[in-house]
Specification:
Blueprint (H helix, E strand, L loop, with lengths): L2 H20 L6 H30 L16 H10 L1
Helix pairs in contact: 1-2
């Protein structure tokens, strides 16, 4: 299993555990706190999997912020537009 697949699997597992607590109708304080922790962990793993997927799709054209985005007309700019659709 490559790194991208592993990150996606981790994100899927984290979301599954979060959704288990979301189904509780009257959560206790401990269950609520657990849900908050699971949300934080799920957010982090999904964020990392999105970053890994972006790296896999865009390779060297990857932009980490709007300030470092490729200039219009550059080869990477066209590649980014292709995946934005």
């Amino acid at each position: 299993m490559d790194r991208t697949d592993r990150k996606l699997a981790d994100a899927r597992e984290a979301l599954t555990t979060l959704f288990e607590l979301c189904d509780l109708s009257q959560p206790t304080d401990v269950e609520r706190d657990a849900a908050i922790q699971r949300f934080e962990y799920s957010f982090e793993t999904v964020w990392k999997s999105v970053q890994q997927m972006q790296s896999w799709l865009l390779g060297p054209c990857m932009s980490v912020s709007p300030h470092t985005a490729p200039e219009p007309g550059s080869p990477c700019h066209g590649r980014l537009a292709l995946y934005a659709r």
